Amino acid sequence: MSPFQQAVAAIVPIPEPFTSAGVFAVCAAIAFTFMGAVAGVLVWAERKICARMQSRRGPVHVGGKFGWLQSIADGIKLVLKEDIIPDEADKPVFRLAPYLVIAGTFLAFAALPFSDRILIVDLDVGIFFILAVSALSAVGILLGGWASNSKWSLYGAAREVAQVVSYEIPLTLAVLPVVIAAGSLSLRDIVAAQAGSILNWHLFSPFMFICFFIFFTAGLASLGRAPFDLPEAESELVAGFFTEYSGIRFSYFFLAEYGGMFLISGVASALFLGGWHLGPYSSAWIFLAKTSFLLFVMIWVRWSLPRLRIDQVMYVCWKVLTPFAMACVLGQAFLAVRS
Amino acid sequence: MTAVAAYFNDIAAAIITAAKGMSLTLRYLFTKPVTLMYPYEKPKTPARFRGVHVFDQDTCIGCFICAKACPVDCIDIEVERVKGAGKKVIIKKFDIDYQRCMFCDLCCEPCPVDCIHMGQDYEKSSYTRSGMILHFARPYTPEPAAPQSTAEAQPGAGATALTPKKPGENPA
Fold this sequence. Notes:
The complex is a heterodimer of chains A (339) and B (172). Chain A is mostly helical and 339 residues long. Chain A has helices at residues 3-11, 19-53, 70-80, 91-110, 126-134, 136-147, 151-182, 187-192, 206-223, 234-237, 247-271, 284-302, 310-338; strands spanning 277-278, 281-282. In chain A, strand 1 (277-278) and strand 2 form a beta hairpin. Chain B has 3 helices and 5 strands. At the A-B interface, helix 2 of A face helix 1 of B.
């Protein structure tokens, strides 16, 4: 049991034969609630930030000042909306798809460490697990796009799968130098390797510096965020793979996207920015601050850069990010052998 | 340029242009929003703004020139001559249909006594079609007393309040 699970077990008394299952259930509920809260805050922050970038005000009314309750109001609206399933849709698959999408992000949250003690499961292969399960979302998106039986959805799903499957490669390759440097796949060990001075951060080593940008770009692409938002592409595909979804199922896709943003930012800050360490200090708040900064950059990029064409997306992945990531892996391996 | 140079130039251009775009949006992030919080803050309309008409019933001589000038026939006037008072008339009805009015100002220009003007008001939306017809004439009540003296007694009661009234409120 991780320290977090022990704390949960100490707070929530669960009778003996079910203790571990119960603790897992409580941890899962905590992770899911956190993901929902993060998505709510992010949606609001994105609307506020993008509004100010365009000299607008964004939400101002709901909740009195700054529209801070806007996400909750939107959430209530989405829950109350009619759940429309198209007649021509493949209904069981159509219903299943949002859960698969959200499961990918949600599973990865289980292995995301916030500090030395706040992590739900301390996996030896933490980063590998996160990269592996977050690819599950692509399956859900493909199913959703196919089951909707709509041309827009199918186009969106096809683009998403082409994009996600391609960008998995630079994403994973960009992680490898960090793994080589830290000598471990466990996120906790990777962060521990960056303790002490800020210069110990993986960001400040030449190969991993490049890898940070590759990871971040590939992460944006695998999330389908702008400028790689071809799967959604609202100006050409209405809403891409979730065109036919409405109400609560639509909000699952939304939740998965914003949860995924937090996940990629969290993993990036753990891998490259020293996680919860900042000089001599270490706390979960530091981790959250670094993650929030990366989230701000994601929002900033989205509202600054135009969407790429699909061939440009593929070009960036296969001809730019992948060779550079490979070169960085080789360089880092060379450094590791030398030292 | 060789292919290799072009490749690296492309990457450099991508990074530089992305940085340029992002620095612009970052600068805008710290500027004041230009939004006018409309129902709370009203925009300042220019002096010659063409809004809902202002009508001065006491000056009006009921000559119908404005109604004739109107290119969309949206002005509906009814007058009654006062017996024994020369040319004095009573304006029984002065309706403007804002579903048709295009705020062209052509009704105001020919008015021989300058009793109709374009005003500053623009908030006259309504849920019904009949609500879009504004009645500018005061409700008509036949008075046996000489109307000339009443008009002289209250010179300030000129411009009629622009409240929409239900059609048919004026006793015909």
